[in-house]
Amino acid sequence: MKALEDKILKEGSVLPGQVLKVGSFLNHQMDVPFIMEMGREIAARFRGEEIDKILTVEASGIALAFAAAYQMGVPLVFAKKNKTSNVSAGVYTTAVHSYTHGREFQIVVSREVLHPGERILLIDDFLANGCALRGLMDIAGQAGAAVAGCATAIEKGFQGGGDALRSEGIRVESLAILDGMEDGKIIFRHNA
Ligand code: 5GP
To answer: Does the CB atom of residue 121 touch ligand 1 within 6 A?
Structure first.
């Protein structure tokens, strides 16, 4: 999505540890019309697919997932993050390693909001190593739901998480894919 690439170049900055900061429009301050546009693009890419529900993880996935859910006319569920691993009978839960925080946390979804046979689209703001999306896949699997695909705003392609998922036959749509951020210079992947 050219508009997203332009925005990353204009407003993004590269932090130590290969972290891209986009706090001016996605992760802290939110450019709402722009996020709605990204939601429209995700809905267009998945048009024709049978999707019952969107699943994301709090907090930074919610805005994009909300925009896509609005465009697709489906409910949105966000997994909650727990610091403790207390498990209750009424939930699906799994451990996820946080790329940006460098530690593990539990994500939790109530059994009341995910059901067997539902077709789920997984959405997150960033895709790096793929831990967050794999955690959501685990939750969907526990519910007996099927993963229809994954969508992210920004995929750091050089970290390999997206291509690993694709090689397993999972549809992954990212609105911008970065192939490198060497010395602060951002390089995008453009497939022919
Ligand atoms: P993964 O689990 O795929 O390794 O990383 C994705 C998760 O880590 C996303 O939920 C996102 O919040 C966070 N993340 C990973 N890389 C970046 C980054 O470069 N910038 C920001 N802002 N978040 C990131």
So the answer is: no
